[in-house]
Amino acid sequence: MEDQNRFRRGGPVPGRLYLAGNADVNWLSIDLQTHAVQRTTADGTQLQQWPRFEDMLVAEAHRLAEGFDELGRPRLVGE
Predict the structure, then answer these.
(1) Burial of 27 from C-beta contacts in 10 A (0-12 / 13-18 / 19+)
(2) CA 68/CA 3 separation, integer angstroms
(3) Which of 25, 41, 73, 76 could disulfide-link 45, Cβ–Cβ 3.0 to 4.6 Å?
(4) Is the per-residue pLDDT at 11 higher than 90?
(5) pTM, 2 dp
(6) How many alpha carbons lie under 13 Å from residue 2 in its C-beta half-sphere?
């Protein structure tokens, strides 16, 4: 497991804990003061924000669940 706070391109933003990401696509981080979670691009453009970590988990679980049918099989594109 890599330390996302040390290897983020451009360095970490003070006051944010980086939970996951990669250098080319998206970063998931939490504001250590407000506890808001953000998904940003590698250059720092905000894509999404949730008020709390729990809100992000629920929203992402629902989003990912849409990719599967009632038996847990992946949906085909266009279904």
Answers:
(1) buried
(2) 31
(3) 41
(4) no
(5) 0.69
(6) 10
**Structure tokens belonging to residue 17:** 């804990």
Cβ proximity of 19 and 4 under 8 Å: yes
Alpha carbon distance 2, 10 (integer Å): 16
Domain boundary assignment for the chain: 4-52
Task: Write out the chain in H/E/C secondary structure.
Answer: CCCHHHHCCCCCCCCEEEEEECCCCEEEEEECCCCCEEEEECCCCEEEEECCHHHHHHHHHHHHHCCECCCCCECCCCC
Would you say 28 and 38 are in contact if contact means Cβ atoms under 8 Å apart? Answer: yes
pLDDT in tens, 30-60: 999 999 999 988 777 889 999 999 999 999 8
